[in-house]
Amino acid sequence: MTVVLEAVSMALVGVFAAGVVLTRDPLRQVIAMGPFALALIVLFTVLQAPDVVLSAIVVGVFAYPMMVLLTVAKIRHRERKV
Amino acid sequence: MNPRVRVTLFLVAAVGITAIFVWGFTGLPSFGHYPGPYGDEVVRRTIADRHATNTVTAVVMDIRAVDTAGEELILFAAAVGVIMLLRKQRGERLVAPPTFAEGRHPIPPSTPVRVVSAALIAPAAVLGLYLVAHGGLTPGGGFQGGVVLAVPSVLCFLAARIRSFERLHDPAVWEVARAIAIGAFLGIGFAGLIASTGFLANMLPLGTTGTVYSAGTIPVLNLIAGPAVATAIVLIVVELLEQVTEVRAK
Amino acid sequence: MIRGLMPYVLALWLFLIGLYGMVTSRNLVHIVMCLAIVQSSTYVLLLEVGYRAGATAPIFKDITSGRSVVDPVVQALVLTDIVIGVTVAALLLALAVQVHKETHSLDPEDLRPMTG
After folding, report:
1. So what's the pLDDT on residue C115?
2. What pTM value is reported for the model?
3. Which of A50, A56, A78 sits opposite C57 (nearest CB)?
4. Fold of the C2-53+68-110 domain
């Protein structure tokens, strides 16, 4: 049972990572990062690391998307003006 | 450089990397059979010598606290770097708050988002403080709780309370708070050097295992590292938000 | 041996695909997120090295000491690294914003070496 859990979570991380990399537009990439962060969190939980999971949750859900969205907003605004 | 040439170079490098990785992997213990003596020794020591139940936080804040001090400094340098990079340039001006929407296509803030954001500010702050304070006992600690402590600031902005956000997030104040937090962390380190065996040594009285105050300097360092991380992230957010809302090219 | 080493292949895969994304990218913000993928390969590798099958998390608040646990040292390394990684990514994004201000483009191909 644990073997299935480990194998599935690892496979999901690999697949979603490919999804993030192959999405070229930054705004869409933020959305693609969601499943990747979730799969990574599940993998960290299966590997018995609750402290790491806390860090990963708050960073993958809050910090990364927020910073990238602010950057994209700034750049889009400039492009619209120019 | 031609994209095709670049991809070919990358493939050559990828083959080399794979070869070295596989050679390294064969020397690793088989997955699931961690043999290492260091981890078991740490676990043995944490409860007996330090009266802490969260061994990971004990490693971060006590046994390998020197590494954490270095990482706090990286955090500090990154925050300073962002502030310096996003400072007002010569060809820019700041617009006053009523003209935030100038030149933008404003989407009116949706009421559910505003209500939920405003309602979650206090719970997020309490959760962050809980994670920081109980770092030595249950999963948590300065770094995890610190990032959660940065959430109320962003929620304040999401709740469209721009006036409160502006008043509460003057970068100068947060920069001073950041500097104080880093200084306090290093100060405890030097106090350990003077009063006890070495830099960042655990020198305060160890309480009873399982209570909030236990394990000497671990909860103190947690309480310092939490705001240190939170202030760094809030500073970065404030700088980026200022760029988006206020800075315009002349 | 294969079953014992397959999980480490995930770290290699993450590293290579993140690197591929950085090499073939046409957008500076896309590069920063591919860097996040490369960093996560190190986290996965570290946590996998410290994993012990059938063991539990190294928190002793509610279990008796003496229970077999996974390695806490690698978890300590990874958890601080995740937070540091995000602040360094913020620095890179600030750089991207400034580059866009100067050259009005986020394409790494349009960046020229500094002259004078």
Report:
1. 67
2. 0.88
3. A50
4. Helix Hairpins (1.10.287)
